[in-house]
Design brief:
Helix content: 25-40%
Strand content: 5-15%
CATH superfamily: Aldolase class I
CATH class: Alpha Beta
Structural class: alpha/beta
Radius of gyration: 18 Å
CATH architecture: Alpha-Beta Barrel
Distance between the termini: 45 Å
Shape: globular
Largest sheet: 8 strands, mixed
Order of helices and strands: HEHHEEEHEHEHEHHEHEHEH
Number of domains: 1
Number of strands: 10
């Protein structure tokens, strides 16, 4: 049975500036997770020129049941060596001061895409001085050398999403591992202690309150600095179903719990996504 969205999910209809930005991205051959993952905040964020670039193409090698990004199904996927330059050119053209870069998972690549992350960070910082770059990475198969490659390019924030509680991983993230994701965040601090780390958890997937608080505690123990909590919305009837809609008051409660745990910034609310208002979250920490 399809669940009706609560009133707090009302969104603006995309206007001309949003359509122009969509056209610019398409014309430049640049992917955004905002489009590929059917983010409900696209219109609101694009109006503020807040977008999350997605590198390594638009097809993912994994098959997470919550995600709208296209899946390879085991088919061969190519790579584009010119992608970092195109992203950097668009960042400069748009005059962005804070940039978020994420990617599809590429377990088929020897380095899981780490080198392209590094090249993209460097290209952006060469194209525009004083720009802040946040990267939202996959688990790089848990290989520390790949993580180090991305961190050596000096991103300003490194994010890696836990996404959900351990009990739900087999249904939602069959090719991921809860402990491995926590280890990625621990290792990031060992490699570059000064770089803030960030993670995100979706709510409304069937997790229990005590499971969520336990996952938040695990993130703090892994040294995670920034946290976002948002409502899961199923991209289509074929995806994992929404189990419940979390009330705004409950999000405020989790935000207070997170800050008490020691997170430097907690952004929590129905519309929050992992890269939502990323610059504001970064500023709150400093």
């Amino acid at each position: 049975m399809k669940r009706r969205l609560p009133v707090w999910f009302k969104q603006d209809i995309p206007g001309q500036p949003v359509k122009e930005l969509l056209h610019l991205c398409s014309e430049a051959g640049v992917h955004t997770v905002c489009v590929e993952a059917a983010c409900p905040n696209l219109s609101a964020c694009f109006k503020r020129k807040e977008l999350t670039f997605m590198i390594l193409g638009g097809i993912c090698s994994r098959s997470c049941s919550f995600c709208a990004v296209k899946k390879s199904g085991g088919a061969k996927i190519g790579t584009d060596k010119n992608e970092p330059g195109r992203v950097a050119d668009l960042v400069k053209k748009l005059g962005l001061d804070y940039v978020v870069i994420t990617c599809v998972c590429r377990d088929d690549l020897p380095d899981a895409g780490a080198q392209l992350f590094a090249r993209t960070i460097k290209a952006i910082k060469e194209a525009k001085r004083n720009v802040k770059v946040e990267i939202l990475i996959p688990d790089f198969r848990g290989e520390t050398r790949n993580l180090k490659c991305a961190l050596d390019a000096q991103p300003d924030v490194l994010a890696h999403n836990l996404e959900t509680v351990p009990r739900l991983y087999s249904a939602l993230r069959p090719q991921a591992d809860y402990r491995r994701s926590l280890q990625v965040l621990r290792d990031a601090k060992k490699i570059k202690l000064e770089i803030p780390t960030k993670s995100s958890i979706m709510l409304g997937l069937g997790e229990k309150k005590e499971e969520l608080i336990s996952a938040m505690r695990d993130l703090r123990q892994a040294g995670c600095d920034l946290l976002t909590l948002g409502q899961y919305l199923a991209p289509s009837p074929r995806h994992y179903p929404v189990k419940r809609f979390v009330e705004p008051q409950e999000f405020r409660e989790y935000s207070a719990i997170g800050l008490k745990m020691g997170f430097k910034s907690v952004l929590a609310g129905p519309k929050v996504r992992s890269s939502y208002q990323a610059q504001e979250a970064y500023r709150c920490m400093n």
